[in-house]
């Protein structure tokens, strides 16, 4: 019954926004933050104000970053990422709003313009002052050779991974883009998120209040389940790969195109007749 509702909701929707959390990337081997085995269980997160104020804390920040970096850089998109990417390619998924920082949606083939990263991206670094981009290979070489935190070669500003830390302001442009996408969608599909971190967790409710259907796919219950039109508790990759009939969606688009072409041909014939 739930599967039929899910397929009907996807079939009836033309502008889907997908919202993803850590749960989709744990299936690629990337640990989450809040679970008993998560990264914050081993190390307390570093506050943004402390990162700015202490060189020793910045050294600790980069040590932690490069300790976990092999896990993230070796991770590959899983069947969940790939299913979303295919829906994006056939025009069903309009935008992907993600809390994740691992770049796996882009690696799955979704264009960067279609991915809205609320918490940034850990696969590169930026100067906090002039925003010059730095690749991590360079930062790692500098850090390992000097055991000092990196500074911008252009303006001498502090360099940090392009992620949003605790206490760091949310990116205004990405928040605006996420709000715009949320208000324009007809289906908001939340995947692999506990929906506990605000302001990001407000987007499902904004979509619902604006008339969109809300579907939540997560292994555990969330506080927003009661607002959803459909709740699915399952493994993400397994569920999406087993229950998304992409040929069906493609055929639906082809049928729409064929119908439009048929109507256009009939109109031309009518004009010629007149």
Can you give a write-up of this model?
By secondary structure, this protein is of the alpha/beta class. It has two domains: 1-29 and 79-118 and 173-243, Rossmann fold (3-Layer(aba) Sandwich), CATH 3.40.50.1220; 31-74 and 120-163, SIR2/SIRT2 'Small Domain' (2-Layer Sandwich), CATH 3.30.1600.10. Helix content is 47%, strand content 16%. The chain has twelve helices and nine strands. The strands form two sheets. A six-stranded parallel beta sheet has the order 3-2-1-7-8-9, with helices on both faces. A three-stranded antiparallel beta sheet has the order 5-4-6. Strand 2, helix 7 (104-107) and strand 3 (115-117) form a beta-alpha-beta unit. Helix 9 packs parallel to helix 10 (203-209). It starts with a helix and ends with a helix. Mean pLDDT is 87; it is low at 250-274.
What is the fold's blueprint, element by element?
Blueprint: H1 2-12, E1 16-20, H2 22-26, H3 39-42, H4 48-53, H5 55-74, H6 79-89, E2 93-98, H7 104-107, E3 115-117, E4 120-127, E5 133-135, H8 136-146, E6 159-163, H9 172-184, E7 187-191, H10 203-209, E8 213-217, E9 230-232, H11 236-243, H12 246-273
Parallel strand pairs: 1-2, 1-7, 2-3, 7-8, 8-9
Antiparallel strand pairs: 4-5, 4-6
């Amino acid at each position: 019954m739930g599967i039929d509702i899910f397929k009907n909701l996807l079939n009836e929707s033309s502008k889907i926004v997908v919202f993803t959390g850590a749960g989709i990337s744990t299936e690629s081997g990337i640990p989450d933050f809040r679970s008993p085995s998560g990264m914050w269980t081993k190390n307390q997160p570093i506050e943004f104000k402390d990162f700015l104020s202490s060189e020793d804390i910045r050294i600790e920040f980069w040590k932690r970053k490069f300790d976990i970096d092999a896990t993230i850089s070796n991770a590959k998109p899983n069947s969940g990422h790939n299913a979303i990417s295919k829906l994006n390619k056939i025009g069903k998924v309009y935008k992907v709003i993600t809390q994740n920082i691992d770049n796996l949606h882009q690696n799955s083939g979704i264009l960067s313009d279609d991915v809205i990263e609320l918490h940034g991206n850990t696969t590169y670094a930026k100067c906090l002052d002039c925003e010059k981009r730095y690749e991590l290979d360079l930062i790692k070489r500098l850090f390992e050779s000097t055991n000092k935190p990196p500074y911008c070669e252009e303006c001498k500003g502090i360099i940090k991974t392009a992620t949003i830390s605790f206490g760091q302001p949310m990116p205004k442009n990405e928040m605006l883009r996420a709000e715009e996408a949320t208000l324009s969608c007809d289906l908001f599909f939340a995947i692999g998120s506990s929906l506990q971190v605000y302001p990001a967790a407000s987007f499902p409710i904004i979509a619902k209040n604006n008339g969109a259907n809300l579907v939540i796919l997560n292994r555990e219950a969330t506080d927003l389940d009661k607002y959803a039109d459909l709740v699915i508790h399952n493994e993400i990759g397994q569920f999406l790969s087993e229950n998304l009939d992409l040929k069906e969606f493609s055929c639906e688009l082809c049928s729409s195109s064929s119908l439009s072409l048929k109507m256009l041909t009939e109109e031309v014939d009518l004009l010629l007749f007149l």
